[in-house]
């Protein structure tokens, strides 16, 4: 995975009409900028390769990855980390920023999720480092828990998992499943029924079986996803392990870390994290 590089208060404008279209996420483009001054060096040929991220100060919803900037001609990728490309104004001003994926890449074993922790455990996605988990989320039955995770490598995942700290007793009428959403909120993978696993202490894993009877999903390095936990029990509610942290109400560069929504009997086909409630702690959820 490329090494993220940074600079303080670096900004420039795009010349002519560069950036004024809204292509598909992941589209590679070449823009001509007015200046390269103050920016770090992005280079696909460096060892390791380097990159940095931009946002338009007027429309910051799209994150753009710069993969090469040897002069004022920049190679970049639109709609990075699950964001949606938008049509920017001609001559818009762009700033270098630290993205959620950059923050996740800072993680090392024993400190936070992402980085070497995720890779060291052989996982594709991990919401929070197990070393920092010791409490449980005090949720209710049919409460959907979603947590942000950044892929540290590109791979096909087939299993979704969590760690049950309080086993559930007496299943309810709703579903008991784990799921995977894009950061834009679209359901892309979910397990089959996990009632038995949620009623047992320890790691609960389920094979991807939906939607459309898929059995795997390919995650992309650097992209953000939401891992989700949903249970329905009329007796004791199963509780997944989590870390203890401040309420995750606020967004970091438009990214929500840990959210929940009550009254969910079935796994929704889409979510809107910005409209969900901030959660005190981050559930340990993973994909492998």
Explain this structure.
With 288 residues, the protein is mainly beta. The protein has two domains: 3-98; 122-287, Jelly Rolls, CATH 2.60.120. Helix content is 6%, strand content 35%. It has three helices and 21 strands. It has helices at residues 100-105, 115-120, 195-198, and strands at 3-4, 11-13, 28-32, 50-56, 64-68, 73-77, 93-97, 125-126, 133-136, 144-150, 155-157, 159-166, 177-182, 187-191, 202-210, 217-219, 224-230, 239-243, 258-261, 277-278, 285-287. Strands 8, 9, 10, 12, 13, 14, 15, 17, 18, 19, 20 and 21 form a twelve-stranded antiparallel sheet that branches. Strands 1, 2, 3, 4, 5, 6 and 7 form a seven-stranded mixed sheet that branches. Strands 11-16 form a two-stranded antiparallel sheet.
* Count of strand segments: 21
CATH domain class name of the largest domain: Mainly Beta
Output the structural class: mainly beta
- SSE string, helix = H, strand = E? EEEEEEEHHEEEEEEEHEEEEEEE
List low-pLDDT spans: 107-116
* Tally of individual helices: 3
Roughly how many Å apart are the termini? Answer: 18 Å
Briefly note the CATH topology name of the largest domain.
Jelly Rolls
- The quaternary structure here is single chain
- In terms of DSSP E residues, the strand content is 25-35%
Q: Give the proportion of residues in helices.
A: under 10%
Main beta-sheet annotation: 12 strands, antiparallel
Which of globular, elongated, flat, extended, rod-shaped describes the shape? elongated
CATH architecture of the largest domain: Sandwich
Radius of gyration: 20 Å
Q: What count of domains describes the coordinates?
A: 2
Average pLDDT figure: 87
């Amino acid at each position: 995975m490329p090494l993220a590089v940074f600079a303080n208060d670096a900004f420039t404008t795009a010349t002519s009409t560069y950036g004024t279209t809204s292509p598909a996420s992941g589209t590679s483009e070449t823009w001509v900028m007015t200046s390269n001054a103050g920016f770090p060096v992005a280079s696909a040929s460096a060892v390791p390769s380097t990159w940095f991220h931009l946002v338009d100060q007027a429309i910051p919803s799209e994150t753009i990855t710069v993969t090469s900037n040897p002069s004022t001609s920049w190679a970049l990728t639109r709609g990075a980390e699950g964001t949606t490309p938008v049509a920017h104004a001609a001559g818009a001003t762009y700033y270098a920023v630290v993205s959620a994926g950059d923050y996740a890449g800072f993680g090392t074993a024993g400190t936070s999720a992402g980085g070497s922790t995720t890779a060291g455990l052989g996982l594709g996605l991990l919401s929070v480092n197990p070393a920092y988990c010791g409490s449980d989320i005090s949720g209710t039955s049919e409460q959907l828990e979603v947590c942000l995770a950044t892929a540290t490598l590109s791979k096909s995942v087939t299993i979704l998992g969590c760690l049950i700290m309080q086993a559930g007793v007496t299943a309810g009428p709703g579903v008991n499943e784990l799921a995977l959403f894009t950061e834009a909120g679209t359901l892309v993978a979910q397990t089959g029924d996990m009632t038995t696993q949620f009623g047992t202490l320890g790691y609960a894993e389920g094979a991807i079986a939906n939607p459309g009877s898929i059995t795997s999903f390919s995650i992309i390095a650097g992209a953000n996803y939401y891992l989700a936990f949903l249970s329905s029990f009329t007796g004791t509610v199963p509780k997944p392990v989590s870390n203890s942290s401040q309420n995750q109400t606020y967004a970091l560069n438009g990214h929500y870390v840990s959210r929940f929504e009550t009254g969910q009997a079935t796994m929704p086909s889409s979510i809107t994290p910005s409209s969900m409630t901030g959660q005190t702690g981050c559930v340990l959820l993973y994909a492998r």
